[in-house]
Protein 1
Amino acid sequence: MAMGLGMRGTGWREYLKSSGEKPHLTWSLLRRVMEYARPYRLKIAAMLLLILGTAGLALLTPLIMRHLIDYIIPSGDINQLVLLAIGLLLIPSLSGVFRVWQRKLNAQVGEGVTYDLRMAIYEHLQRMSLRFFTNTKVGELTSRLNNDVLGAQNAISSTIINTATNIIQSGGVLAVMISLEWRLTLISVIILPFFMLASWRLASRLRDLSRRHMESNAAMNATMQETLTIGGALLVKLFGRVGEEVDRFGERAAGLRDVGVNRAVMGASFMVIIGLISAVGTSLVYGIGGYLVIQKAFTVGTIVAFGAYLGSLYASLQGLANNPVEFATSVVSFERVFEVIDLPLDIEERADPLVLTNVRGELVFEDVSFAYGASAGRLLSEVRRYGQIENVTAAMSGDEPAEPVKPAGEEEAKERDADENDDHAEIEREGAHHQARQLALEHVSFSVEPGKLTALVGPSGAGKTTLSYLIPRLYDPIEGRILIDGHDLRDVSLASLTAQIGMVTQETHLFHDTIRTNLLYAKLDANQAEIEEAAKAANIHEFIVNLPDQYQTIVGERGYRLSGGEKQRIALARVILKDPRILMLDEATSSLDSESEALIQEALKRMMTGRTSIVIAHRLSTILAADQILVLDRGRIVERGTHDALLALDGLYANLYETQFHGNRLDSLLDGPNSPRAGKP
């Protein structure tokens, strides 16, 4: 029993040293931790009573054995022998009932704390702005929700209970041992420092092996994650690297195997040596105690009782030595949990926000400026955790980078949004001209009338997507204000605002679920007729009904089982089902085949009718249909007007028209039946 507790404590010390964490305990932090225990105080009190009862029952068995050996057996009292034998059976039975009951209460407390913490974190993360997610690794969020929450709950459901158990058990055992024979008690305690010194020395070597094991496991997991996802598997097959990847995985799996063997041998050696040290204490007690029995100092039953108490004493004292480390480790996890909960919100609602009703769809930008910079106080700190995939900096080569790597979220944000500033923007040069700058948007002012179409055009990185993100308050401007029907967006409730806005982005995201579930995300109570009507409006219904499972078809990870055009039309159907008053589209039809593009354009035309629409235009047909065109460059509106008026200016728009829009393919589209010129003189 003592050896088991020693190993458990070693694991916690291993975690602290290998992770480089230095627990910092303060009264304010401890009080906050205890606040999470407050709802479960009655259950915790009941557990302490059960622990007291279990510990008391454990003290009875050695005393019964002593009485049997010293008095009952020598006297030949059969009746007393039967009663004590029954007692030896009832004690573990009752103790077992107490332990099961205690385990149930402990699980209720532990799982309850886990639920409370996870809900607090998840709810807060859902309220964070897009800025936070573009600067934070998904793996770190997962660790906060899983590993750190589980570590934190140990402070309440495990460490406190273990500490109470060890205190009660060690105190009770010592009291009984001293009452029986103080000299043997002194011998038992003298051996304890040697026991703990050997435990710590051996634990250091075991800790190093465990760290190497976790690092090897992380490297192997990283290889699996990189090569067994859809994109990774496709890349491996296209480049014919199946053999190389099998060999690479084999090398890492072999390394993990070898370290695992060494770790197992060292662990067994640890247990043997700790067992030998425990045996030294036991042999001294029995040796010296036996001599004292021969000298008639006390009875044989006293030695037998001492032998039983000795293992319990070593186990409880060793546990007490480890409990502070366990608690400090749990508090480290609590600090990480609290860091998430305490993150300030970029996008906050007023105490009594305005709820939008009967929205007309008028939008006004008044001298709006915006920058993407994120302060350190609004992001999570970097934490190194051994054994987790996100800690492997070079998943394939296994090499450490010469220079620090930028956060993954920042790189992903740059790929997603070429409109961000010099930390995020993709720089495109035409001669000396580029889009790198401090402000993503600078003094932008314009208005959109209800039911009208506004097209945004400009070079990549000019600020078009950024501008569209400000309307649903994915970000807030640093200067100026944005109005909807005359109301500042900051005064409007977020729920009523997002209910009036439908947005289709370039990167279509579908959940790994059925087509029906993905569509229902727009309107949870929609019936099948409404779903099909939206799908027909998006020109995707015929495709869906010809699938074997129709609307119950699983779309795969991120919709990977569908083509780009199919995913986009499902995304359009989802927005149509929402039926928003304001529509925002980042058209991404340039990479689609002609048939998909024509179907999407036809759906878009029906969709924009009667709605206030803001479209980041990639096609000339959309631009020609616009009521106004805003030309952005380096975060500013440099030109505005209709297509013909802007061409007459012979400025940036005219240059974009010549280089990006003008061509035989687009001219043919303009002459097609679905073109904006159709039916016009």
Note: The chain has three domains: 11-180+319-344, 182-297, 450-670.
Protein 2
Amino acid sequence: MSRTWNWGPLPATLSAALFLLYLWLRYFSPYSPVGGVGLVAFLAAWVGGYALLGQYVPRRWRTPGRLLRWNALLALIGLAHTLLWGLLTLAISPDLERLSALIRGFLEVGVAIQATGHLIFISHLVLSRPRREKLWSVAGFFGLTVLLLSLRLLSPSLAPYLMPLLWLGILPLLYFSQWLEDVATRQMPEALLLTGSTVVGLFLGWQVLPSLFFSELPPLYSALYPLLLAVLFLHGGWLLIPILLRLTRLSRTDTSSLELLTDFLARQQRSSSPQETIDVTCETLRKIPAVGGVYIELRLPLEKTLVASTMGTGPLQDSLRGLLRQRSGTESYVEVLSSLQKFNRNLPDLSAVLIQRPMSLLHGAVLSQTLSVGILSRQPDGFEERDIHLLTTLTEQAALFLENLERHSYQEQLLTARKEADFLRETREALLPPPPPILKKIDYHVLFEQYDRTIGGDYYQIYEYPDGEVVDFWLSDSAGSGIAAAYQMAQARGALNTVWLRHLSPDALILEVNDALKRVFHKNNFLAATLLRFDLRRKEYILLRAGNPEVFYWNPLTEKVEILRPSGIVLGNASSQIIGRILTPERGKLLSGSLFMIFSDGFTEATNSTGEMFGTERLLDLFQTHHALPAREIASHILQAVRTFIEGHSLGDDGTLLLVRYTG
């Protein structure tokens, strides 16, 4: 793929080297003729600066209004520059010839750079909409400039005769400065202030101050003087033209834009859907004289997209869609493309404006919709600054109407959602486990981090049998989330509390619960569970695991952590005959200091901002490090570690942790 060679840095670098050479010659050879070096440096800076401005400065920063401001700022900087170096020449003794010549050289280089900047800005201002006549007038003026500067070196006696021609060359430039009409009409005070400050700055810097500081003009200053005077005349013309335009066209107003905007707002007030809103926006944008085509996309969550277009299917619409989708969808932007041919040579040489406005939905911070608008010009370089401002205003108003539609929809849904939330909250409170019992010879603590404050799928319960010698610890996790998971949890809770009354063995209890769930569960529903039974009379524990994560066990005899993984599958999805073949109890002696940790996957699958999960290894390390602490403190350390890891965000799922220590 070929790349365009940016040749602007080459003459710019050459000019910098020649200016340094000029200063070097001025210091070491104050009386030598070095004007040629300075003039060549000036011409190279002019060519390189014009190329760099066109290649590296975006078009929206090279509009006539902004270039006019840059011209005024450059004139004021040049005035301060001349005053500073001029005062330095007065402060230095005439006997220090080299130093005095060097300081004058700095002044000359600054004036040359200032003149270069003005010519660069003038070139872009006049050629803002290039035509053959403009090109010839600019080429003629700058050709006369180069000829005059050359004659200053080769034949100084002929140079003064060309000065009137150079000043006459200003008239075509003034004639083709059509941008002044818009600036004068819309920003009259600003236009007068900027052009006035430019004229004053140039006059003081090039006419008044040099006569105060020098008995005769330095070489480069003298060579550039006719050109500086011509530029001064041009800026004076720019000061007069807005006044004349203001006097002759005082009654001109932009009523068409006002009427267009008023009609747009009235029609949008009657829009009742997002599609109708973008259709009205598309039709309104198409009525702007500079607009040749419009393409609008409203991208909604779940990959849904609404489209409005004034162009038929084809390469132009496909190109606009592709350019819009190449940009980020999370930030607002307004981008002006000078020509579509920069992206595809087969496309017409038309300008395009790309506008994007993301809008967060009230339904949640994660969801958003994005309004993307691509607008083609009717002719090459067809958008002015006021056109872009109007296009942006209409798009912004469309986005506000879309947000208003979504807000009304959200308010209606909110009323229904509040009733549902109250129902879910009451349901959740009814399904909470009963208060845990006070147990002898057992220290335990339950940590329950609920993801959804209204309802969830994790359920735990501690059941002490009437004789006080057997205690069951139950932890289950329902499939899915929300109401479906809560429904499964409610069914499991009801089955458990019924089966516990029958004083069954642990494996029989699991199978009875499975039978009860299988009768009511859908084929895609299931329940992962862990049952840990303490038989205090026999000093024995029995562990059954039906799809839940492994259980950590601190063995006080070996003083090591063991990972208990008895086999088993989830409940409610298979027959008890199949589950009974797979379910294998883990049995062991209860030793004083035995510590068990049962947990759901809400903790191990908690993720941080990079998508990394907390994982089983980190949980195991925390359990091993803090096993000697009371159960409540162990849970506190684990919770703090998980919250630090996920950087204060939500777990993303219910998380339950059950720590049980036998102290008998």
Note: The first helix runs from residue 9 to 28.
Protein 3
Amino acid sequence: MKQTAPPNPVMSTTGRTVTWILTSSAALLALLANARSLGLTPWLEGSLFSFADHAAARIMVSPRSDSLDAIGDTIPLVATVSDHRGAVLSGARIHWAAADTTVVSVDSSGTVVARGPGSTWVSATVRDLTARAVLTVRQIPRRVLIAGDSSVRIQQGDTLQFAAIALDGRGHRIAQVTPRWQSRDTTVVQVDSLGTAIGRSAGHSRLWAAVGGSMADVAVEVKLTATAVEVLSGDHQHAIAGNPLPGPIVLRALSPEGRPVPGAIATIMTGDGEGQALPRDLVADRDGRFRFTWTLSRHAGPQRVLIRLSTTDSLFGVLGEADPEPGTTVTELLGSQPEGRAGTFLVEPVRLRFTDTTGAALAGVPVSWRLLDGGAIDAPARTDSLGEAQARWQLGPHPGPQRLLAQIGSPRTIPAFRVTASALPGPPASLTLVAGGGQVGQAGRQLAKTIVLAVRDSAGNPVPGVSLAVSPSTGSVADLAPATDSVGRAVVRWALGTQAGPQTLRVRSESVPIEAGVTATAVAGPAAALELAETPGKPGQPHRLVATVTDLNSNPVQGAKVQFVSPGGRLSATSLTSDATGRARVTWTPGRDALSQRVTATIRGTRLSAVLPPATSPGAPRSP
């Protein structure tokens, strides 16, 4: 009989443990699989432990991108969770979040709501797994709204600001979109891109504000308005004070673009409250014209009628001129008879006073001025408030009596007033060089040509008998105080100074501050002296010799031909031309005999010579 071994207690315990684990796992899996049918899903989702969370290997969001057309539009997002085998898991805890909540918001079920224009992403997260969907909110205009009434009226030339907004499908304003404005008839009303409308001419038109295929309109009526007055005839008429103007005043009321305005209403009044303009109240005819007559007041001078349109606060004026009454005008010269130098302004202005026979000043009366003998006049066109007029009179260029005529009123009825002034010869005003300037002459000698100067007054006339003072910078003149002759000229003879170079002659008037300067250039005369000198050098080196040529006044002579001779010695050159300093430079190597110890320099064409003796040559060998 076979004997059986007793059971191992360790192995029995392990087996029981494994069996319990397998059994518990199977029960848990069955519970999770039937959690929805058993009503346990909410409990499991709220618990700290989720099998789907731990089993999740991938998450996807659908749709991955989408757009919304209006603020408030919604779109559902669906998140799908699967394990590593691709099986879809249910019960996973999904966390939804929007990156920019000003663009969209999302709730726990994945429903997205549009909040504002823009683009952002929404994420769905399970554990460390995340999927995203890109959402764009782009408001599409569905309607245009114009603020205010549907029909408006503006005056011609006025502007009106319209406001229009674009709305999306849910009635929210689209801030980034500005409606485009358009006028049906731009000759009646124009509108710019910002909705600013301006009435151009009378009539009716419509304005549209459009975005895409959506639009709204408003009716606009432009009324013709009188804003200006045109004078057709009658302005600046003349009449004797207190009398009617010879013709009526005809005006036309105009719109901003210059069109006549029928039926325009205007009121007229005289500027000084005197005189009379009739009728006082005016209504424009079918051509926009007004017509009235004007009787001037009894005051001589300019007068004015004012016109005010009922549609504007501006005043428009028409001018008339009241001439003094003939036979009642008195003209008086204030002050003494004028006198002055020819070609200059009188020291005091010519003052005239105009009154009537009662002594009343003729204020604001036009005055015309005329010179009969040349010159110039600076005078007012009208008398001042005292009836006076002051004229600055520049006399003509010629001495003698000169005449000025002053005219007020009509020349046919009122004679001109004559003023006579005495014109004296003008004083010296300029001193100019006529001839003899810029000459070149030998130093110490008189210039070949005489210096001629002219003195003239401000009108360019020669002035005789003017004494001049002449002062040369160097040299001398025959007459230090010449006077101008009958043709205003003075002649000066000038002997240059002994020093070569530029020289000046100053000429001035002793009576008036005018002067002139004359320049000349003194050059050296012919060679008159020759010097030969040695510049010391190093022993054993050639001697450096300098020949200097000067004129009688010791001025260096340039261009002199200097020849050098040294029998038996060696010279760097035997013939040289003196430079600007009068010098000619050579080098010399003496010989050994006595004749070679001397150098002779001569100037070609002259008897001038210079000898350098042996004793003056340092380092030269002496004769035996």
Note: The radius of gyration is 60 Å.
